[in-house]
Amino acid sequence: MTDTSEANKMRNREIARNEEAKQITGSVRVSIWAVAVVVIIGGILFTLGWLALR
């Protein structure tokens, strides 16, 4: 009975670690996309501003 309980606890811990890794990966991916979008929009706005001043 204790072996089964311990095995379940170990399995649950492993599942929790895997889920945490997935969440971290997802967060990093979203952050990279957000930075890329900001850089692109900033470049467009900078170019428009520069052209307006010419």
Give unreliable regions as ranges: none
* Shape type: rod-shaped
End-to-end CA span: 80 Å
Helix and strand pattern:
H
Tell me the number of structural domains.
1
Which oligomerization state do the chains in this entry correspond to? single chain
Overall structural class, as computed from helix and strand content, comes to mainly alpha
Number of DSSP helical runs: 1
Mean pLDDT, all residues: 93
Sheet with the most strands? none
Helical fraction equals over 70%
- Percent of residues in β-strands: under 5%
Q: If you compute it from the alpha carbons, what radius of gyration comes out, rounded to the nearest whole angstrom?
A: 23 Å
**Total strand count, please?**
0
Keywords: Membrane, Transmembrane, Transmembrane helix
Transmembrane segments: 32-53
